[in-house]
Design a protein that fits this description.
This is Transcriptional regulator, LysR family protein. One of its GO terms (molecular function) is DNA binding. It is a single chain. By secondary structure, this protein is of the alpha/beta class. It has 3 domains: about 5-85, Orthogonal Bundle (Arc Repressor Mutant, subunit A); about 95-160 and about 260-295, D-Maltodextrin-Binding Protein, domain 2 (3-Layer(aba) Sandwich); about 160-260, Periplasmic binding protein-like II (D-Maltodextrin-Binding Protein, domain 2). Helices cover about 40% and strands about 20% of the residues. It starts with a helix and ends with a helix.
Amino acid sequence: MDLDWDDLRIFLAVARGESLSAAGRVLKRDPATVGRRVSRLEEVVGAPLFARSPQGYGLTDAGQRLLAHAEEAEQAVTRGAEALAGTTGGLSGQVRIGAPDGCANFLLPQVCAQIAAEHPEIELQIVALPRVINLSKREADLAIAVSPPATGRLTVQKITDYHLHLVAARLYLKEHGPVETLADLEGRPIVGYIPDMIFDKELDYLSEIGADRVTLGSNSVSVQLGMLREGGGLGIAHDFALPFARNLRKVLTDEVSLTRSFYLVRHAGDARIERMSRVADMLMSGLKAEVARLEGLT
């Protein structure tokens, strides 16, 4: 059985996008053309690769088996292209990095700017989403996570610990009185995540301060920080974000001190792609240094 790489590339796009239209946008092809190519590939392999439904295209058992081989072919093509490009010491090509918005807003811009300055031909894209990045659908090439995934053919490396504390705006504390004990939190407005939109258990901070409700909520760390800066109440904030919000002050630092971790997640097979491995190494060292630098400013 001869499989054409272009057909496999189309198969991967449909598998990841779960629809012909999504695959067409990625491939810059008409969805009808994508559908015909999928049907042709199914004829070649002699089995349906997708289960069609109003919800989209889901992989059949045969499709699941082909997926792993198609991804291996994709990685081989990428490695071959890099080998033909030669080894100049510089990096080129596109790398998409997915991250929760706290990391994406306050850490990754500095780190990625430094990588780009050292490697002008690289194209780095930051995808900031208030949810877990789906690597299997290639929403990103590399992902930053706050807890290591338990499933999937993935490589997971711990990057660094980071710290969080209870904070409030100085003007809020001046107008509403100091917070000197946990009992002083009773009746105070709390800023935090919308409870039913917390996408990782590590982000559930309410139990840390004994709060049972959020007065001002958002699924975005940046929006929460804005609410706190405007005197909306008290809330948990990343130490590395506080240099960007100079009017916020830590309170109850002995009673409320949280430690969490960042992890770098990528497809296991991508470890053999030099560009991905080098960018991953630079991301890890850069993020670790940037967390230490910003936390040191607080």
